[in-house]
# Entry
Amino acid sequence: MMSRTGELVQWNNKGGYGFVRDGTGNDFYVHISKLADGEPRPKPGDQLRFDIATGRNGRPAAINIVVTAAAPVPERSMRDVRRLSDAVPRYQIGLRTTAATMLTLLILLAIVTDRAPLWLGTIYTLMGLASALLYRFDKLYALNDRWRVSEANLHVVDFCFGIIGGLIAQEIYRHKTVKPRFVAVTWALALIHVLGLAMLALGWVSIALP
# Structure
């Protein structure tokens, strides 16, 4: 039996069936049960190698199906990130804005009352921007199945005064807001900074001014 090659032009993922079109333009019925052992579930655009057999209705159907080339994944941009974010309820992420705002106000209060040096606000600003950029890149990499920024690095930057930018980036990009362990560490870091800045703003601790 001679194998043929073709492109999967139609696929019902729920039902597990579709049609593959060979090089001559003929369509053959495909059922997920006829995939070779270990083959992944196909998707439209995949290139398949298959044999032909008689199907249940007496028409030719594909069997012994092997996915030889997966359909290319389209590059996604930050416009896709914002479009996907519309599906996330606002109340789930409003706390991040509240926490970032609280941290910012505490920094300003500490500075205007001369309980903290101006450079502290500068450090929070610069590290916040760095954290936001890391979240942005990690979101893009996740959408395009590329190399990721490690969660440890994200936490380290957030701990090292980048927490405000990290919280804002999580909200804007709807990123890293579901995984329980990551969320728990993020809120722990935010709490550490809130407590530290609150004690600084209230004069319970002090930083040597230049």
Observations:
- Strands lie at 4-12, 17-22, 27-31, 47-54, 60-69.
- The CA atoms of residues 51 and 120 lie 68 Å apart.
